[in-house]
Amino acid sequence: MSFKVGDFVLVLDEDLSGKIKHISGQTISIETDDGFLMNFQAHELVKANKKTSLKSEVFLHANINDVVTEKEAPKRKQETKKRVKERYEPTMEVDLHINQLVKSSKGMSNHDMLTLQLDTARRKLDFAINKRIQKIVFIHGVGEGVLRMELGYLFGRYNNVKYYDANYQKYGLGATEVYIYQNAPKT
Questions:
Q1: Taking Cα atoms as reference points, which of 12, 39, 42 lies closest to residue 25?
Q2: What does the longest C-alpha to C-alpha distance in the chain come to?
Q3: What's the mean per-residue pLDDT of the chain?
């Protein structure tokens, strides 16, 4: 947009107007109605053909509608995107600690406790497959690793599951996450 000394201009984003008194590159000096000399960049000004103010909205400049539309155009709100891991957080947790499965483990041998824990894990996994639940976290604790190893054997018998360590920040080393492929045949 070309300006020349003597043009009447309006200042964008402010209720100021005035006559151009001096032009130096992109810096334009205008004299306001109150007699003040003020400097603006060329992109901050709009030429008008008669003395007016921004409040009166009597603009006769060809591109003023474009400028106003650009200034008033609503900014697209940035969509918050969920990380892939958050979108598919486990929907089911199964705590296999023996104190969560029975009132008292008094009188139970280690073999009895392990068998109960594995039967519970098998039942919960079958339930999840039938109900089309995609992820389960089995909380087994750290201990000596016997239950964890046996769970690995159990999960290995299924063609439609993949298992790996669960989220360390949430469960530490004592949990295994199982992902179930829903379209694969179960064995």
A1: 42
A2: 102
A3: 81
